[in-house]
Specification:
Radius of gyration: 16 Å
Largest sheet: none
Distance between the termini: 36 Å
Number of helices: 6
Order of helices and strands: HHHHHH
Number of strands: 0
Strand content: under 5%
Length: 172
Amino acid sequence: MTRETIIIAFRFIFLVLVQTLILNNIYFFDYINPNLYILFIFLYPLGVKRTNFLIVSFLLGLSIDLFSNSGGINAAATVAIAYLRLPILKLLINSQDVDLKLFKLHKESFFRVLTYISILTFTHHFVLIGLEYSSIKEIGAILHKTITTSLFTIFLCTLSIYLFSKNKTTNF
């Protein structure tokens, strides 16, 4: 086992436990539930085979579903953003600008990090809440809950990335 594998395993277990034991019991305004566990997707190394990443992402979502009794919606939403992560990252960061295998999220500009996190978080929450409601008639409620929950999750993820990064440089 490499050091990177141990860090990934620790991050996986830590985020699942924080999400299921603490954050799933917190509801702001009776409906805003932060989903910090998607931070795992944002921080997962890009140099790993994509198939392995999708499998680990599925297991992350499935773990949250098992503890939350949510019927697989977290697994579906997590795999969706795991699948879209690389294309979105390639749109935001030109491959000529940076080598994707050496990419570190906390070393990018704040605007790029915020855009990256925002797109993936809104996608995750839209899939998650859309599957939860399972009705197109509820599109207003789905969009409202997606936007409000996403804003809180984006704040927590961005704060976590910059608070717990080794390199404290922030490029605005």
